[in-house]
């Protein structure tokens, strides 16, 4: 690119960043940028393929800083490595400081935009290489890089007046830590009299879904631990796996978070220094359909008063029930199941149906299963949700924004490895440690965390001394639904963000109405979900006929609310039986404890005991497992001093 062209491209980006600062990224269109710069649409698209690609200017400018440093600076010509490294980080930070909102959006979308992802990877590799050139030690380079990442995240979360101030303060603390590491190394390698060599506890985490990644990320912060994260498939994330097709980002697991302000993920965001954006579904555009009539969903008091699902008496009854749940005095928590409560509640059929439908939609289960959910589970869940100021939010850019950051945190520790396409085939106890065998190798570990469906854990432990203790959990039934994703070349209709059909027991979410990072410009992404009953079919034909009937019903629902969708389809994906949760939280299933008596392992995942439902239970149980294991390390570390 000629110098004059580079300058024009730079000015277009500068103008766009100014508009983003003033109005917010989502409120600035390509046409706004073109008008403000006086360029043509053709010129803009010559420089950038899309508005999102324009965000690549930030890592490009940071790469230019690194390239300049690599050419102009020599380790032989500086007085202090510490001050020299600080100046490098300050120069990199100066690129980000003027545009925090742009940096946030870049973090949200880069994981799912190949061009931006490549740029970010190239930047990280170049920065790590530059740090290693000066420090000559990969662990120390990775440590400083992690401090830099954490400082940027803290700045974005408003923890400092300026990025420069935070970088100066935290890098000073980081170098103090490095100097302390030198002193500790001198002692542990035998330079001090009677020194003991440091022993790190070696951990195996089996399963690379949300739970496994979370547990490993927490443990990677423990200097006395090292480990391996084993994942059988070629990619991380489990049911939160994300992929791109024809410009559409598709999630195997819906990336909606219920009650994000009271959610475990918000705690993890702070504790692990994650950075992601989210956007709330417009509550006024969430609808229910019954008997062919559409009405507002009673998500709050305003919508409850507007809805046609209940008469005046029913509205007063349900408002009173919601208030009792919020106050934690509802008698529902004392009943074995929702069905038991409804049978004795004295409420009319419309109130009973509303309770049933709420549980269906939040737990992704059919009505007959909704009535089997324990009363205390529903009471606890809706106590949090009714108190939430942000009841339904989407993680901008999909689950990959979270999973990629967890992966990076694990790898940057320098003490953990991620083994993809390497599932555990067997486990045995030998000489006080646990030997895990995969198809590629055998390795020895001090502790093991199982972050996989409990049914798979029970299968893996068959024939071991621990088999009897897992037997009560091996027949747990999963939550399965039919998922129908369609990516459309244009917005065919946008009458609402969500429509739930009470008659057919299925719903459609206009995902792109909330998260527009998942679609190409002008596109629309719809996701239909049909609840599936656990019917025992006499043969395969009956089961197939049932699923075909549900599929036809879903397409009919698309036809009714999004006419013309068939002519605009670019991407279509149907999962006739997609697992939403590895254990359906009904009274006839048992969640696995994080620690099980007489079993030496730790367990986490959405089939384990923990806070919330769906992904939240995966996060909360993983956090608890890591906390318990870290506590176990403390007396061992003290004994080696």
From TrEMBL:
The keyword DNA-binding applies. Keywords: DNA-binding. Signal peptide: none annotated. The keyword Ribosomal protein does not apply. Residues 29-48 bind DNA. This is Protoporphyrinogen oxidase. It comes from Thermobacillus composti (strain DSM 18247 / JCM 13945 / KWC4). It comes from the Bacteria. Residues 6-66 form the HTH tetR-type domain.
């Amino acid at each position: 690119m000629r110098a004059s062209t580079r300058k024009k491209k730079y000015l277009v980006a500068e103008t766009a960043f100014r508009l983003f600062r003033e109005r917010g990224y989502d409120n600035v269109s390509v046409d706004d940028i073109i008008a403000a710069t006086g360029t043509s649409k053709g010129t803009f698209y010559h420089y950038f393929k899309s508005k999102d690609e324009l965000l690549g200017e930030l890592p490009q400018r940071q790469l230019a800083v690194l390239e300049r440093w690599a050419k102009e600076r020599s380790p032989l010509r500086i007085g202090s490595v510490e001050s020299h490294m600080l100046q490098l980080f300050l120069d990199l930070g100066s690129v980000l400081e003027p545009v925090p909102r742009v940096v946030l959006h870049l973090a949200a979308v880069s994981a799912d935009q190949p061009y931006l992802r490549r740029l970010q990877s190239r930047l990280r590799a170049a920065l790590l290489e530059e740090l290693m050139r000066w420090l000559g030690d990969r662990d120390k380079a990775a440590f400083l890089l992690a401090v830099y990442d954490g400082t940027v995240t803290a700045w974005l979360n408003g923890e400092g007046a300026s990025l420069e101030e935070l970088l100066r303060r935290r890098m000073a603390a980081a170098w103090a830590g490095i100097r302390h590491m030198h002193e500790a190394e001198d002692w542990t390698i035998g330079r001090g009299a009677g020194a003991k060599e440091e022993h790190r506890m070696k951990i195996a985490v089996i399963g690379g879904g949300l739970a496994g990644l979370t547990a490993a990320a927490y443990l990677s912060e423990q200097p006395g631990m090292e480990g391996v994260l084993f994942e059988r498939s070629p990619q991380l994330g489990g049911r939160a796996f994300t992929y791109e097709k024809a410009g559409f980002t598709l999630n195997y697991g819906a990336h909606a978070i219920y009650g994000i302000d009271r959610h475990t993920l918000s705690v993890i965001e702070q504790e692990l220094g994650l950075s992601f954006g989210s956007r709330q579904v417009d509550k006024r555009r969430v609808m229910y359909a019954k008997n062919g009539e559409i009405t507002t969903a009673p998500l709050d008091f305003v919508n409850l008063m507007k809805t046609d699902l209940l008469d005046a008496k029913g509205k007063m009854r349900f408002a009173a029930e919601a208030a009792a749940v919020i106050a934690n005095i509802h008698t529902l928590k004392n009943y074995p199941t929702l069905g038991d409560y409804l049978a004795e509640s004295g409420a009319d059929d419309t109130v009973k149906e509303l309770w049933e439908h709420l549980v269906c939609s939040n737990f992704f289960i059919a009505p007959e299963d909704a009535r089997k959910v324990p009363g205390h589970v529903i009471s606890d869940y809706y106590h949090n949700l009714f108190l939430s100021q942000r009841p339904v939010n989407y993680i901008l850019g999909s689950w990959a924004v979270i999973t990629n950051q967890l992966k990076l945190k694990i790898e940057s520790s320098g003490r953990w490895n991620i083994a993809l396409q390497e599932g555990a085939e067997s486990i045995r106890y030998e000489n006080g440690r646990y030997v895990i065998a995969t198809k590629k190798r055998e390795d020895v570990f001090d502790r093991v965390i199982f972050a996989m469906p409990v049914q798979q854990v029970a299968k893996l432990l068959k024939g071991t001394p621990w088999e009897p203790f897992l037997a009560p959990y091996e027949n747990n039934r999963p939550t399965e639904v039919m998922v129908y994703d369609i990516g459309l070349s244009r917005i065919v209709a946008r009458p609402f963000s969500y429509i739930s059909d009470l008659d057919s027991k299925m719903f459609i979410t206009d995902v792109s109405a909330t998260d527009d990072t998942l679609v190409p410009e002008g596109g629309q992404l719809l996701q239909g979900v049909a609840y599936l009953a656990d019917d025992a079919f006499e043969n395969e034909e009956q089961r197939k006929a049932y699923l075909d009937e549900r599929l036809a019903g879903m397409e009919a629902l698309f036809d009714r609310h999004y006419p013309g969708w068939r002519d605009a389809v670019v991407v279509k994906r149907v999962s006739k039986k997609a697992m939403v949760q590895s254990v359906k939280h009904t009274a006839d299933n048992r969640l696995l404890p994080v620690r099980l008596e007489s079993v030496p392992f730790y367990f986490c995942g959405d089939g384990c005991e923990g806070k919330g439902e769906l992904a939240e239970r995966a996060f909360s149980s993983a956090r608890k497992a890591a906390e318990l294991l870290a506590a176990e390390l403390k007396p061992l570390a003290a004994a080696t001093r």
